[in-house]
Every structure is written in C-alpha cells, then in structure tokens.
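I am writing to request your help with a piece of structural work I have in hand. Thank you for your consideration; the sequence and its tokens are set out here:
=====
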Amino acid sequence: MQNRNKNLLLSGICAFALATAFAVHTMLYVSAAPKKKQPESKATATVTTRTTQPQRELSSLSSKKICWGQGRNFDELNRPRDAVDSQQKYGELGGLFIGLPEEGDSVSKKIYLTFDEGYENGYTSKILDTLKEKKVKAVFFITGDYAKREGDLVMQMIEDGQVVGNHTWRHYSMPEKSIETCREEISLLHDYVKENFGCEMTLLRPPKGEFSEQTLALASNMGYKTCLWSFAYKDWDTNSPGDKTQSLNTLIERLHPGAVYLLHAVSPTNAAILGDFIDSARAKGYEFVTP
C-alpha cells in the first residue's frame, strides 16, 4: 500500500513539473514573438508640427468664411490689387496670394505654377512631360480620392521633382467645418501621402479657395503654408475647354511679378499650351519657382 501511494505521489509530482515547464516555455515563446503592429485609426491621425514658429491661438481669430478670387483691378505692375492687399493682410497667418518683392528688391519676376488635381482627365502625364522637358517645377494639389486612385501619377510627380500639395482629404469647404474636422482633413491626406509615397507635404490649397483667419492659422500651426492664387481663369469646364490661342494670350497678358498661377490639369487646352506659355514667360524675364 505504501509503495502504491509513493508511486501516485511521484506521478503527480512529475505531471506538475511537466505542466509547469510547458507553461514557462509557452510564455517565453510568446514574449519573444514579434508583435503585430496595429493599424493606426485614420480618425486619430495627426500631423507633427514642422515649424519653429509660435503656435497661434485660434480662438482669437475670425472664423468668417472668405471666398477667394483675385479680382479685376490691377496696379501699375499688372498685379491684382486684391492679391497684394490680401498678402499684406494675411501673410503673417501663412497665406500666399502673390509673391511680394523681398526687402531691397523693387520687383520680383517670379512665377509660382500650380495645378489643382481633384480628378484625372487624362492630361496630367502630358503636363508632367512638358514640365520635365522645360525643366520647370510646379505644385500639384491633390485630394484624398486622387491620391488613392492615381498612385502612379502621384509617384511620377515625386520622382520628377515636382511638389505635391494638400488639397484636403474630402474637399470640404474648410470654414464651414469645425476646427477638428479641418485638422483631420489636412492630417488624413498628409499621413496617407507620407506613408504611401514617402513625401511630406507643406503646402495647402483650401477647396474652392474658401478660408478664414482661423483655417490659415490652423494650417500654419500644422506646418503648412496656405497657397491661394493671383491668376485663375475658367479652365475647369471640360465641356468648354477654350480656344488655344485665346487661352495662351490670356495667360501671357496676365503675367505679373510674384504671380501664383492656378491651372486645372483636366483641361486639354492647358496641356497643349503649357510649353508655349513657359517659353513666352521666360522670354519676358520671368523665372518659375515653387513656394
């Protein structure tokens, strides 16, 4: 009887030892295994501020919506007066309406060439080829939908040395949304482009050209400059693309120092006349630059 009890005790001890060893082994295996990275929720994505400037207090600024248009009143340098006035008024909040001469310069014969990319109409590739041929850098403002649908073109922009700009994730009118929604609109696209294309954007074009003092300052706090324009014309209507000669003459006639040109890449006319416009502007002493 004693031997039987002794055998049962030994069997129990052995079973406990084996179970303990298995549990320890399992714990060590699990702790050593690589952890699966949990996907970050897009709703909580944030942009790391990339500016050393002090953060503006948004509550002290106006939330009134401003619908931008360059106006038809021009000064002696052929510059839209509204663009010059707005640059002087909103420049410190991070707005770019027109390039003004730097201190000590009388005139700055520079052109900022920009394209809005809400959707693809088959002409962006030709525009990129012309820019590459002419050795001109431009800014392409893309939306979230464009980034997801036209990845090859976005990558071509980056590889060609062009600048990719933020036209927001869902193309909302920013002054009509809350500050948190505006922040999300900028950050969702910023993070998507950074993660998928390795490009960190610093220029924002507000949808429809609608902004407020608060949205300018918000973008600036997030490390962005808000790029409006000092020249735009009706080139977005695909049902009426415009006469090539007339359109080219319009682009040339409206040349002015510090011009920020807004063109739409959906226009076959813009794609066709771009090279001639670049040549004409350079012949008049203008230099193409990016903000």
User: Anything to note?
Assistant: DSSP finds nine helices and eleven strands in the chain. The first strand starts at residue 66 and ends at 67. The domain at 79-94+108-289 is CATH 3.20.20.370 (TIM Barrel).
